[in-house]
UniProtKB/TrEMBL annotation:
EC number: 2.4.-.-
PANTHER family per record: CELLULOSE SYNTHASE CATALYTIC SUBUNIT A [UDP-FORMING] (PTHR43867:SF2)
Protein name: Glycosyltransferase
Entry GO MF terms: glycosyltransferase activity
Pfam families in alphabetical order: Glyco_tranf_2_3
Superkingdom of origin: Bacteria
Compositional bias of kind Polar residues: 632-646
Keyword terms: Glycosyltransferase, Membrane, Transferase, Transmembrane, Transmembrane helix
Lipid metabolism keyword on record: no
Locations listed in the record: Membrane
Length: 646
């Protein structure tokens, strides 16, 4: 748009009389103007995103220039807006622009927070309509947005808790089992112990055969993936980027009791390469998490970062918090990160280019997760081994074959419109990621993988690892039960191949974890019996051979897949993984039995995984991959007071 266009937002020339009074350097403002031109956004938007000027000071100075009053604070109850109007305003690209309200004396006023103001046109309008001008007040955009959020809180809470259940009840985990599932599980709970009392050897054999089938299905999948993996795929070569073509990108991060990790999070987000005037970051916190909120308030956050406070109503889960924030996002694309994540700086660019080159049926892209603290403990080493197999083996293999892809819990890139169309996250599901991947596939959308990774830390101790793994296993069982309510419909939605893979990934993995302890216990008992009596009863010898076969081949397939997906320098540690695998699988089995109990007693309980700040390089005992190096490109810059490079 030309500077002479009376409808075009004002550029530096018209803003200069205001900015000069604020003492801003003209040379830096010229740089802001250049970036605005490259990004195809108004000068005002780039100026606010740059952090050169405090938002409140800028809009107070604008009000003086326009001859209007300035409002420093707005009470939500003073707004004359209905709930659905508030939701529409929150979804507007550029923010909430206008709102009618009552002043302290009960008189009506029109609050304005213009996002692409043409100053000359505004002055002419005020001169032409003095009565309207007397009722106008300028307000900082963030202040008006907070008031609208407060006004919309009831609707946002209802959507977060009931949105999926009201729109697509068959996919909601609010009720984990339906009538026929409950009856079947109840019958099994009665028949199994009764059968063990009446026909112990026969029932044990049937039980071991069923568990063995689950075990062997997982072995077959791992071997199929391992046979096709020979080296890690190379990083995607990015194409030249035209900044004006880049859409608004939303970054969502749910935080709970994460005060210590806030500086690391802001530093990691500050490395993301994306135009700051086209970036919106939502830090989603529980409203009663005072420590995390205080840690965020202690930062000087840029204007494109919003702290969203989620009311404590309903299930206290991560997906409920994300569902609360989703209706207030405006990005064409949206990515989900965890508080401890350190995404590769160019991950957003790779995802955007993949979406742009693909059809609308591609709804989600999963970035690989890389564990950076694998040397801190044997548990973190095994965790990294698992993640290598999953994110560099299983998920890319599923994507290449066009099969259903259960998402990882973070670094999921979505087309926001599709995410809303399929109901968003299920607030009652404790593995909302896997559920969403399955639901996307059932509703006709595709998921795929990208190559630029996200670095994160694994649990290093048993007390942190166990609740996290319990939650994952409980959620996978929960997800399977929800989607298996109508088996024929599920087969029709997924197709036979994806349906079969789903049975391996969800009940197969869960039953394998449960069965591992049964196999090991049976081997120990029968071996002890043989040591004392010199023989094993014939009816139990088959069970012993079957269990030995399962353990040897199960561990072997697990190790083979992990080894093939590891970077070459790390493969020399395979012998350590061989020694650790029996102990690790025993812990997996313990987590599975714990998950089974929680599925019965506390199906929607979310066990929080605590995170700790990354220790600086050189700390004793620390050999951590720090993740991507700091990026200094124009579109990557500090986003808060403690995210500035040292």
């Amino acid at each position: 748009m030309s500077q002479g266009d009376t409808r075009a937002p004002s550029g530096l020339a018209e803003w200069w009389p205001i900015l000069e009074k604020l003492g801003l350097p003209y040379s830096e403002l010229r740089g802001v103007e250049g970036r605005a031109s490259l990004a195809g956004v108004p000068f005002q938007a780039e100026l606010i995103a740059s952090g050169l000027v405090n938002e409140a000071k800028l809009f107070r100075a604008l009000a003086q220039h326009l001859g209007l009053g300035f409002v420093a604070d707005v009470r939500p109850e003073s707004l004359l807006m209905r709930q659905h109007h508030c939701l529409s305003a929150l979804r507007r690209v550029g923010g909430v622009r206008t709102a009618a309200a009552l002043d302290a004396a009960g008189q009506p006023m029109l609050l304005i927070a213009p996002d692409g103001l043409n100053i000359a046109a505004m002055l002419r309008y005020l001169e032409r309509y003095p009565r309207i001008a007397r009722a106008m007040r300028v307000v900082a955009p963030s202040v008006l947005r907070r008031a609208v959020l407060g006004r919309a809180r009831e609707s946002l809470t209802r959507i977060a808790i009931n949105g999926l259940f009201e729109a697509l009840p068959k996919f909601s985990a609010r009720f984990v089992v339906n009538a026929w599932q409950g009856a079947t599980l109840g019958a099994l709970a009665v028949a199994l112990p009764a059968g063990l009392l009446l026909w112990p050897s026969q029932v044990l054999l049937v039980l071991h055969v069923v568990l063995s089938l689950s075990f062997l299905s997982c072995v077959a999948l791992r071997l199929a993936v391992a046979s096709s993996v020979r080296q890690a795929p190379p990083m995607t070569v990015l194409k030249a980027v035209k900044t004006e073509e880049m859409p608004v990108y939303t970054v969502l991060i749910a935080l709970y009791k994460e005060a210590e990790i806030v500086p690391d999070l802001l530093l990691a987000l500050g490395r993301l390469v994306w135009p700051r005037s086209k970036l919106e970051i939502k830090l989603v916190c529980e409203s009663d998490d005072s420590e995390t909120l205080e840690a965020l308030r202690a930062q000087e956050l840029r204007s494109y970062i919003e702290v969203v406070e989620v009311p404590p109503e309903g299930p206290r889960t991560k997906p409920k918090a994300l569902s609360y924030a989703l209706p207030m996002t405006t990005g064409e694309l949206l990515v989900l990160y965890d508080a401890e994540d350190r995404p590769h700086p160019f991950q957003l660019v790779e995802a955007w280019q993949r979406f742009r080159e693909s059809g609308e049926e591609l709804a989600c892209l999963q970035a690989p997760l890389v564990i950076s603290n694998r040397r801190e403990s044997w548990i973190s080493a095994m965790f990294a081994f698992e993640y290598s197999a999953l994110f560099h083996g299983v998920l890319p293999w599923l994507a290449r074959h066009g099969l259903v892809l259960p998402l990882g819990g973070t670094s999921n890139h979505f087309r926001r419109a599709v995410l809303e169309r399929v109901g968003g996250w299920d607030p009652c599901n404790v593995t909302e990621d896997a559920d969403l991947g399955l639901r996307l596939r059932r509703l006709g959308y595709e998921t795929d993988t990208i190559t630029f990774p996200t670095y994160e830390d694994a649990p290093t101790g048993f007390r942190v690892w166990l609740p996290q793994r319990t939650r994952w296993l409980k959620g996978w069982a929960q997800t399977w039960l929800v989607h298996m309510r109508d088996v024929r419909e599920m087969v029709r939605d997924l197709g036979p191949h994806s349906f079969a893979v789903t049975q391996v990934l969800f009940p197969g993995m869960f039953l394998s974890a449960l069965g591992n302890s049964i196999f090991l216990l049976t081997i120990l008992v029968l071996s002890a019996y043989f040591a004392f009596h010199g023989e094993i009863p014939t009816q139990y010898s088959t069970i012993l051979l079957l269990d030995l076969f399962n353990v040897v081949f199960g561990y072997g397939a697990f190790l083979a897949l992990g080894w093939w997906t590891l970077p070459t320098p790390e493969r020399r540690d395979l012998w350590k993984h061989v020694l650790r695998t029996p102990a690790y699988w025993t812990l997996l089995s313990l987590a599975a039995w714990r998950a089974l109990w929680q599925l019965y007693r506390r199906p929607h309980h979310w066990e929080k995984t605590p995170h700790r700040p990354s220790r600086p390089a050189g700390t004793r005992g620390q050999r951590r991959s720090a993740g991507p190096a700091r990026t200094t490109l124009l579109s990557s810059s500090p986003i808060a007071s403690t995210s500035r490079p040292g």
